[in-house]
Amino acid sequence: MIPRRPGRPGRSRVLLVSLAALTLAALAQSSWHPGHHGPPWDAPAASSQSFRIGGTTIQVDFAPGSLDLPTPQIMRWVENAASAVSTYYGRFPVSRDRILIQPIPDRSGVLSGTTWGAVGGFPAFSRMRVGQHTDSSQLTQDWMMTHELVHTAFPSQSDEHHWIEEGIAVYVEPIARVQNGLLTPEKIWSDMVRDMPKGSPQPGDRGLDRTPTWGRTYWGGAQFCLLADVTLREQTHNRFGLQDALRAIANDGGTIDQNWPIEKALKVGDRATGTHVLERLYASMKDKPVPVDLDSIWKKLGIIRSGEDQVRFDDAAPEADIRQAITKNPPWGRIAPDHQPNNSPLF
């Protein structure tokens, strides 16, 4: 979830993964600590820790409340996510970041995440709602922490372009975790084969800018990213992909604390790859429904469904090299927190 910066028009949004999360959405927007009625970044913290990754300091505050897991384990979860995002982008996107861990009594699991830009004196601020009885396996399987930190790497958009913010986070999060050694390529491609159709246009669709449904916002945005990634690699003979475009946007200052028109961000990304792929895709998909031929993409990438939520790879497929390049560890290798070795995940 990524709300607008304070003072800008628009409504807050919560990352929704199920019908039950609708209730969490309402809770996430209300005052969450007795006696506190201001914004989350002004709420009291019971304790605070920090770590550095590259040149960035990430402050992790813990709101009042209890968690069954020890603090070092929560910190490893945050560090893993920061490492995945840093590895994908070549550095952590913003110079300073703050994360607030909010314990939720009598609940289990990572319940929701929200990210803001330029609040409370930080370029980025994320609030993560974590159930009191969350166990280590739930942290290991969690994707929300990484998803929220990906949001820091793209400029804040107006409401009609919310799909690109969420689409990038949905698409980049699992790829970044593969590059960080936390997931396998088979896992993320099987998930994409299963979930990407949720973003396809439905009757009455008016394009990505004009169809703010859950499916089109999250998975329609992810379809845009997948199609852009494959098309970029096809046009540049696999020299450049979406990762290069997104890195360039962040490196040019296009991070969550900045308000850029979508056209500016896409132009910066295209300039980095020497193409017009992002701008042209946006022009074609922004105000009319454009179905993405997912089956064709899977076939040419060599992704074959081999069972329920399982795939196998055909390395003889015409664009198997593109599939491999998308999840390949970048030339700079895994970027870990300064106190961690560079060759192993924290879990």
Please supply descriptive tags for the structure shown above:
347 residues, alpha/beta, two-stranded antiparallel sheet, 7 strands, 40% helix
Structure, described:
The protein has 347 residues and is an alpha/beta fold. The chain has two domains: 21-153, no CATH class; 159-327, no CATH class. Helix content is 40%, strand content 15%. The chain has helices at 21-29, 71-89, 136-141, 144-150, 162-179, 185-195, 214-235, 242-251, 262-273, 277-285, 294-301, 320-327; strands at residues 47-53, 56-62, 96-104, 110-119, 122-131, 303-307, 310-313. The strands form two sheets. Strands 1-2-3-5-4 form a five-stranded mixed sheet, sandwiched between helices. Strands 6-7 form a two-stranded antiparallel ribbon. A hairpin with a 2-residue loop joins strand 4 (110-119) and strand 5 (122-131). Helix 2 packs across helix 5 (162-179) and helix 8 (242-251) packs across helix 9 (262-273). The longest helix has 22 residues, at 214-235.
By DSSP, the count of extended strands is: 7
Reading the helices and strands in chain order gives HEEHEEEHHHHHHHHHEEH
Return the average pLDDT rounded to an integer.
90
How many H/I helices? 12
Strand content: 5-15%
In total, the number of domains comes to 2
User: How far is the first residue's CA from the last residue's CA?
Assistant: 25 Å
Question: What is the spatial order of strands in the main beta sheet?
Answer: 1-2-3-5-4
Shape: globular
The secondary-structure class comes to alpha/beta
Helix content: 40-55%
Give the C-alpha Rg. 19 Å
List low-pLDDT spans. 4-32
Tell me about the biggest sheet? 5 strands, mixed
